[in-house]
Amino acid sequence: MTPAVLQLILTLEPLAMVLARDLAALFKKHPQLTPEQILSIVTAIHAANADTLAIIEADQAAHPTQ
C-alpha cells in the first residue's frame, strides 16, 4: 500500500485501524492487487458507511427522543 492510499484510509474511515488490518490481510492473500484496486475497495466501503450513517440520521430525525 502506498502512503497516499494509507492517508486516504485514515482520512475517510473512522475505523481506519480495523480497515487497515483487513486490507493488509487482503493484500497478503492477494498481492496482485494494485493500489487503484485497493483505493476502489476503500472508496466503496466509505460510500456504504456514509449511506448507512445517512439512514441512521434520517431515522433519528424522524423519531426524536425526549
What Rg is obtained from the alpha carbons, in whole angstroms? Answer: 15 Å
Q: Roughly how many Å apart are the termini?
A: 47 Å
Rough outline: elongated
Helix content percent band = over 70%
Outline the biggest β-sheet: none
User: Can you write the helix and strand succession as a string?
Assistant: HHH
What fraction strand?
under 5%
Rounded mean pLDDT is 80
**Strand tally:** 0
What ranges have pLDDT less than 50 throughout 5 or more consecutive residues?
none
Secondary structure category: mainly alpha
What does it look like?
The chain is mostly helical. It has one domain (3-62). 79% of the residues lie in helices and 0% in strands. The chain contains 3 helices and no strands. It starts with a helix and ends with a helix.
Question: How are the SSEs ordered, and which strands pair?
Answer:
Blueprint (H helix, E strand, L loop, with lengths): L2 H10 L3 H14 L5 H28 L4
Helix pairs in contact: 1-2, 1-3
Index terms:
66 residues; mainly alpha; 79% helix; elongated
Question: In summary, what is this structure?
Answer:
By secondary structure, the protein is an all-alpha fold. The chain has helices spanning 3-12, 16-29, 35-62.
